[in-house]
Write a structure and sequence with these properties.
homodimer, 434 Repressor (Amino-terminal Domain), Rossmann fold, 3 domains, six-stranded parallel sheet, six-stranded mixed sheet, 12 helices, 39% helix, disordered N terminus, disordered C terminus, DNA-binding
DNA sequence: TTGAAAGCGCTAACAC
DNA sequence: GTGTTAGCGCTTTCAA
């Protein structure tokens, strides 16, 4: 337990250990590295381990990295940690990376390409071994150049057309289908969509999912019932929903691109004296913390953000371990969480809609999971 | 703009630049470092800069760090990023550090001493230049040993008795005073306290603040109106508040140790059919995102978490720049945010209370800041 | 199985 | 002013 050092100050070095163990530094290196321990005599190895222990020796990853060109560090690019969604993703990444001995280096980009570029450069300079990008911008500079130039990249919360890049995302298609089906089962035929920004992957994919889900249920997709927001914010949700409401009132259900947009819908309802869910139902997306405490508690689609992060970490480790690991693209299943913001249609559906009846009634509370 | 390299592969090195500029690597180092540029000929410097630009040279901080023993990296120890409060602190730190060229290395500890210890070791090994600890545990292993042994540490969101360690915290004393005064002005005399865990600094300091504020207002401090929670969670808030409510009903106001505990109080009210704020008022602490959307919207004390982080970063930079910078201890002013969870007493105050009248009425909306 | 020696990319003390 | 040299702490050939 004694912690006396041989070198004058600072932590013990490989050389100090070598001196104490009476061997050459190279031997200490071999003995201490599990990979190469086999090359060294059992006896000697033990002596080295003891000496290291006695000196409280900690290998210096900086020096090691300089030699090996591996920093055991992964750059994590995220729009904004203050968004609880990304905080969860990051924790998943951190926990997933930890046991493998990797450490995340985190940077917030605020979805600003310039800031992202800078962060990427800085991280490259710091010799990160790879990047996990949770930045949701579509048509992204990161992909064409960097990936081809050998940087290991894993996408989380978004993907690209190309199959060359490993990615893990929530299954938005499925999630939106759950939302639309839920509303349809409540008798809604005319369903509106407050879509997220189409420049962001999640905004775009959920919009696509909406179109497909409506068609699959043979519900009419009315372009005038779709409004595109400029940002995933409450303010934009209020603006878009207001626009919708001022345009027409022959619908009583809204699928929002995420929870913040849904929250904005609440504001628009209140400004117009509309009751939710009595007058109009709304479904959010993400199941952020505390949406169950809103007035009314928000029905929403839960995305397993922590698992998204943990899985992204696993994909990264795969890439790191073998040069030729196939770039897997994973979809994680969402889950509909039915709360208080959705209710059966009060008025009869609009005249033109077919009279298809709802398949079955849904009980409130906990809920339908997808496979 | 061309990016051809001289060395076969990998990024350009100092030597590559030297070769292109036709000078010695040492000269390149001097020319590129703003600190030492003065030592080199204007002409030569320009040539070097151009060569560096042409090659797309990026200095390798790993190599530099090995030489200088400075990594330009700060370890950040935080209980849990998924807690929005700490996410804000971390963003403040990141932004505060960035312009000085420092990067945070973040680890979550979940308030677990063992995990914190491990994270600390790992960061030390990675040669971080200092630590910013947002971990709120009192009586903390970090301080006695490490600080004395030369590690630079800045505390955020907590402090210690010793003045030797720089710290920046919210002024809990002041914040709780604002809360208690607000309730007193609404006519409350018997005020209960659902205190946070006393093992955590914020739980403890707010409890102290509560005692002082009550005494300052000459309100009776009744020990049976104070319950200590085991954690800053909604569940614990519900348990403690329930205990209080089942014990007696001759109070109509609660100061909670934080917003989550206040939220738990909501649950306890609901379970007992109590109306808030009609039957009982409650004040939270922190002003987390979305507490304004709760039912009722939560009256709470806002803590400038982002600024806490940014200030902590500034204090760290001070320590880093000069060996003998005084370890400043800063208090940031909180702000009372009055919303819907507090209301005037319905029943007359309990008989024993003195009949001191409220000093002045408070207007709703934005509100009193401290100096 | 171990020692010797070179060198990762950079900085800094010293010499010219 | 600029070149020279020596290493930071570690890994990894190459010999022995």
């Amino acid at each position: 337990m004694a912690r006396r050092k041989l070198s004058l100050a600072g932590p013990a070095t490989l050389r100090d250990v070598a001196r104490v163990a009476g061997v050459h530094p190279g031997t200490v290196s071999r003995a201490l590295n599990p990979q190469t321990r086999g090359l060294v005599n059992e006896q000697t190895a033990r002596r080295v381990l003891e000496a290291a222990e006695e000196l409280g020796y900690r290998p210096n990853p900086i020096a090691r990295g300089l030699r090996t060109n591996r920093s055991h560090t992964i750059g994590v690019l995220v729009p904004d940690l203050m968004n609880s969604l990304f905080a969860a993703v990051v924790r998943g990444i951190e926990d997933g990376l930890r046991e493998a001995g990797y450490t995340p280096l985190i940077a917030n980009t605020d979805n600003d390409a310039a800031r992202e570029q800078v962060a990427f450069e800085a991280m490259s300079a710091r010799q990160v071994d790879g990047f996990i990008a949770a930045t949701a911008v579509r048509d992204h500079w990161l992909l064409p150049d960097q990936v081809r130039s050998g940087a290991k990249v894993v996408l989380v919360n978004r993907r690209v057309a190309s199959d060359a890049i490993p990615a893990v995302t929530g299954n938005d298609h499925e999630g939106i289908r759950l939302a639309v089906e839920h509303l349809a089962e409540l008798g809604h035929r005319r369903i509106a969509h407050v879509a997220g920004p189409q420049a962001l992957y999640t905004g775009w994919s959920r919009h696509q999912g909406f179109l497909d889900a409506m068609r699959a249920l043979r519900l009419e997709v009315d372009p005038s019932l779709i409004v595109f927001s400029d940002a995933f914010t409450e303010r934009e949700g209020a603006r878009c929903c207001g626009e919708l409401l001022d345009r027409r009132r022959d619908f009583a259900a809204i699928v929002a691109g995420n929870d913040l947009l849904a929250l904005g819908c609440y504001d628009a309802f209140e400004a117009r004296g509309l009751d939710c869910p009595g007058g109009v139902s709304v479904v959010g997306y993400n199941d952020m913390p505390f949406v169950d405490r809103f007035r009314p508690p928000l029905t929403t689609v839960r995305v397993p953000h922590y698992e998204l992060g943990a899985t992204a970490a696993a994909l990264m480790l795969e890439q790191l371990r073998s040069r030729e690991a196939p770039p897997r693209q994973l979809l994680l299943a969402p889950e509909l969480v039915i709360r208080g913001s959705t209710a059966p249609v009060a008025e009869p559906p609009a005249p033109r809609a077919s009279t298809r009846t709802a398949a079955k009634s849904t009980t409130a509370g906990e809920t339908g999971t997808s496979p």
